[in-house]
Amino acid sequence: MKISVLGCGRWGTFLAWYVNKVGHQVMLWGRDNSRNFQRLQETRNNDYLALPEDVELGSSLEQAVSIAEIIIISISAQELRSFLKTLNTLNVIAGKTIILCMKGLEAESGKRLSQVVGEEIGKNVNVAVWVGPGHVQDFVAGIPNCMVIGSEDVEVTKQIAQAFNSDLIRFYYGQDLIGNEIGAATKNVMGLAAGMLDGLKYSSLKGSLMARGTREISHLIRAMGGNDITIYGLSHLGDYEATLFSPHSHNRKFGQALVEGERFEKLAEGVSTVKALKELSIQYDVELPISNALYKILYDNHDAKDTLEELFLRPLKFEF
Ligand SMILES: NC(=O)C1=CN([C@@H]2O[C@H](COP(=O)(O)OP(=O)(O)OC[C@H]3O[C@@H](n4cnc5c(N)ncnc54)[C@H](O)[C@@H]3O)[C@@H](O)[C@H]2O)C=CC1
Ligand SMILES: O=C(CO)COP(=O)(O)O
Q: PANTHER family this protein is in (predicted)?
């Protein structure tokens, strides 16, 4: 199949590498002025991998979209809406399948990224998400993992999963788009919290964070009309090792750097997702104590140690 990957950062470049490896014809698109794109053009390398010669690099968005049946998008979540507005003006997207390979929510509205596609592009495309655990560093070292593809159309889900399945990534068919999108975005929030615990030398609390984090987000998924069991699947709990424990996780590193008084400059999607969760907790009237504590730390300048310790002072309650 002809596939174009839009976004040539850490993950987008890996996706182009992977989709080429499993036998598809791939174009990786980036903006002319992007440092990532320029470096790939000059060296075909980034910090993580070397791109094979048969992955085409392109900077014309119109060309990248018009030549492909499947369009994979992997840019920062907060850029998606404006990016789609630009894409829409080119009039080449109708009839394509868009796969969102990004883990975030729109910060101001709390909207899921597939909803943003629906609002900006309309109904004349198929939309799927490809989420779950995986770091470029592990995949290029040949370490396999499991991931999940989901959409509102089971035939689209199956077609994509079958086209991309390999002995490096085993795909499962997602059955709950709301749960998969909320789960994928919010695992980054738990990653920020895990990093803060690491920085505070409270790493032994990460087991409790896993238990209470999943419970908190399952309430939100149910309130939003999803299936609360999805939280225990690949998009959320299955991604905890790669986020709460992995030395590669940007979200975990961001949280750790914050409590250590350092700055972590790379994209940590959880920071914007914390804002989205504040909005969703109001919209759906769901209590999200861990996410709310992170909001106070990140947006109201509360002290991380005090704020996380305050979680222990709440009234006792039943576990489930
Ligand atoms: N296992 C998985 O499914 C993984 C998923 N991700 C997700 O992938 C997404 C991207 O993350 P990274 O690649 O780490 O970020 P990154 O910062 O390395 O790459 C983002 C890329 O998007 C481009 N970009 C940003 N705004 C743009 C715009 N308006 N128009 C065109 N291009 C734009 C940037 O130039 C950059 O090349 C995130 O949502 C992240 O959560 C990341 C790693 C693993
Ligand atoms: O989603 C990821 C791993 O599955 C990447 O996580 P980070 O963005 O925290 O590095």
A: GLYCEROL-3-PHOSPHATE DEHYDROGENASE, GLYCEROL-3-PHOSPHATE DEHYDROGENASE [NAD(+)] 2, CHLOROPLASTIC
